[in-house]
Amino acid sequence: LKTSIYNRSVSLGELVPHRVVGDILPPITSLEKLRMALWDPSRDNNNITPWKIKGRDGITVCGESPLVFDVQNVNLDHMDKYKFFNKGKFVKEFMSASHYARHPTTGDSYNYVFMTGYDKGLFTGVEPGYEMIRVTEDPDGRAVGKVVGYIPSSLNDIRIIHSLGVTENHVILPRLSLRAELNSTTHVCSNIVFDDKAPTYIHVMAIKDGSFKTFEFPPFISVHIINSFERVNENGETEIVVDYPTLTTMEGFNHDRCYYEILNIEYMLSDQFSYMKDFKPLNDVTIRRFVMNLATGKGEVIDHPKTWQPQLLHVDFPFVNDNYRGKHFCIVYFHTIQWDNRNAMGILKLDLCKQTSVGWDDLNLFPVEPVFVPRPGGTEEDDGVLLSPVYDPRTDGSELYIWNARNLKVIAKLSSPVRVPWTNHGIWLPED
Hints:
By secondary structure, the protein is mainly beta. The chain is 7% helix and 39% strand. The strands form seven sheets. Strands 5, 6, 7, 8 and 9 form a five-stranded antiparallel sheet that branches.
């Protein structure tokens, strides 16, 4: 933020200037709210996901914004802040996915930008919708954004698309039932709506020409795609397959409550607060497969069986072997949370082909998203290790845990000179 919020927070020793999704602390003035809404569109704190883009030096840091920035990959010093597209002052660019998707063959990165002309396209020619972009390299090896296609959408039905998929020939834009409403410039959670009446739409766009097909499904809630791939069925028809960890049911939601505020410290410390009563839908997750037939235009949803224990478990933050992204795969790794057990956390390995699972957790240890690192020269999908910083509140310290990715046995722990709090996402980069 270019307001004084960040500097004031640092001067007071508050390294995080706001709660996860609630009110900003310390409280901000009406003038600062106005500056956030109008004067300060170029936020530089959208640090949700690290990513590596071909043709860019350093690490690209992404958020739910078309604005991204690069940091040096060793010391994390700020390098650059930029957008791949700028349509001019009469066009508003709202959102992008926090996660780019990488093409399985070219390595190009894909994302979207939700945009609209302030005149809704009357003179600007930019109607509300999702512009799909591919970030590739120009002849000089520099990153450049190119438009793949455009998917129109009403301003009254903006969906929060946190991640998307890409296969060899298609990019997948999933519009699940998590809607965005512009209710507040400062209280993020009030802009997030779990809409159990909003159908799920998954758009499949051809990379070659930008044409797309739309598949409609019942309402589902999820934010992190597991993987997507193409296959040919027994009739010779091409199908697009997308896997998601989704909330099992949309029933029982209290629409007066913001569900992401479960992360606020007041809830975690309250003896009177009941996770199972107030946040039960978040405890019940089903891995679902969406199959879309491009020839017939029909889609179906297949539930994978729950092979983990306890079955009431928040299963999210999926990570697959990078060599299998956009391709047929079997193995996925998750971060898990038991909301009803003081946020006990662990990691989980699922084999979606054999329908088997293995988990890891330990008392008072809190891992984050497990990152898979393939063994050099390995040929099996799970031949490698998992990495995750693990926080121990008993010592207020952190260690980097390394697990055997096949059986989740701990094979090494590396001490850290600093405490690493619970964070969202990580990335592994080979030295070269």
